[in-house]
Specification:
Elements (H helix, E strand, L loop, with lengths): L17 H11 L6 H10 L4 H6 L2 H6 L4 H11 L4 H10 L3 E4 L7 H4 L7 E6 L8 E6 L5 H16 L3 E4 L5 H11 L4 E4 L13 H9 L3 E5 L12 H10 L3 E6 L6 H10 L3 E4 L10 H8 L4 E2 L3 H8 L4 H9 L5 H9 L5 E2 H8 L3 H13 L3 E5 L2 E4 L2
Parallel strand pairs: 3-4, 3-7, 4-5, 5-6, 7-8, 8-9
Antiparallel strand pairs: 1-2, 2-6, 10-12, 11-12
């Protein structure tokens, strides 16, 4: 199955050279080198990831790797060509985001040992820092679907990004309701981006990417199959991307409860919608509430109050007009509500003519400034 052709396209790291990025990608392919060991290697080799990749057994041992891990790494290294891995991702338009990049999700970066590398198809945006995860059973009842649809729809309308795991049942309902409401949604996979699982949700995955309303995210490289052992790691990212986790319907053995446990470990709030005492599908959420592991919620207002998310639309609007770089900040300081000619702005800013012209165009698109004719500009608000 092909990788999605993301509208945002492939882009290189904003903090690493392409050569460095190739080695980060290569390390993400090595089983046994997780976030903790990778951080030890970076620290020991002073952020020289190429030196870490090419190190011999002695150097790896000095960096703190045990002999079993060293042997495994050397064996796997012989089968991986970093530059080829990078070229493959570029060809398939898969985005790569590392710890070092500004685009790395802020909430995920706060957890203990976040994934060093994320693979992304689709669009991430500033509002994703106001995200709430909705998870639950794959065998959703009519009640579970109705509850999930209502919460996801109202959260999306309030500019809260809905995070879930692309599974059948509750996950799929949450993603779909958020999209239908015109909101954003993030789907976290337990496989590489070229293997959409379950296949029944392929069209939903494509819609998330093609709509520009969200993204598919995974820590697993291309070709990694959705093995059962991958899903606890997937659940950890779901909760890590969100300010809280809502479980709308789950039996006692549901994987959604694993996500709730990760959320609690990460210091996130956990919420649950109560269900019928006669329904096995609600036994997990009811017990979670009974044991004090989750706040009982019956409407979106409960969630927004607990997480202080009432002002998300205003914050998102405000962020859209904040300057992104030094050129925007310089021009913003020179503009007011009285028209200023572009020649004045060029002269007073000391910036090249092309830079001023291009920056003003971008600022106008962002709603920061307004052209009033005759090459004159004013603040838009």
């Amino acid at each position: 199955m092909e990788v999605f052709d993301s509208p945002t396209r492939y882009y290189p790291s904003d903090a690493l050279s392409l050569d460095e990025l190739a080695y980060w990608i290569a390390f993400s392919r090595v089983l046994g080198i997780g976030p903790v060991r990778f951080k030890h290697l970076l620290d020991f080799f002073h952020d020289d990831v190429a030196a870490a990749w090419h190190a011999d057994s002695k150097g790896l041992a000095q960096a703190g790797l045990d002999q079993k891990t060293i042997h495994s790494f050397l064996r796997q290294r012989s089968t991986i060509t970093p530059q080829q891995e990078l070229e493959k991702l570029e060809r398939l338009h898969v985005q790569v985001i590392t710890w070092k990049d500004k685009a790395y999700p802020k909430l995920l970066k706060e957890i203990d040992h976040p994934p060093p590398v994320l693979y992304v198809a689709g669009s991430l945006n500033e509002a994703d820092q106001f995200a709430l995860a909705i998870v639950g059973t794959r065998k959703a009842s009519v009640y579970g679907r109705q509850v999930t649809e209502r919460f996801a729809r109202e959260l999306a309308k309030g500019k809260v990004t809905v995070v879930s795991g692309l599974a059948l049942g509750i996950d799929a309902v949450a993603h779909t309701a958020a999209l239908d409401a015109g909101g954003c949604t993030l789907a976290v996979l337990g496989s590489g981006l070229d293997i959409i699982y379950p296949p029944e949700n392929y069209n939903l995955a494509r819609r998330i990417v093609d709509s520009g309303q969200g993204a598919l995210i995974t820590e697993f490289p291309l070709g990694v199959k959705p093995d059962a052992g991958n899903f606890p790691a997937r659940n950890r990212i779901i909760s890590g991307l969100a300010r809280g986790v809502l479980i709308t319907e789950a039996p006692l053995t549901s994987g959604a409860l694993i996500t709730a446990n990760f959320a609690l470990e990460q210091g996130r709030e956990v919420f649950a919608v109560p269900g019928s005492i006669f329904s096995p599908g609600s036994a997990g959420v009811n017990k979670l509430i009974q044991d004090g592991g989750a706040h009982l919620v019956t409407n979106v207002k409960d969630l927004l109050e607990a997480l202080n998310l009432f002002m998300v639309p205003e914050y998102v609007e405000m962020q859209a007009v904040l300057p992104d770089d030094a050129e925007e900040r310089t021009l913003l300081a020179l503009l007011g509500h009285e028209p200023r000619h572009i020649d004045e702005l060029i002269r007073e800013s000391g910036l090249p003519t092309k830079t001023v012209s291009a920056t003003l165009q971008i600022m106008e698109l962002k709603g920061m400034v307004k052209s009033v004719g005759g090459m004159q500009f004013v603040l838009a608000r």
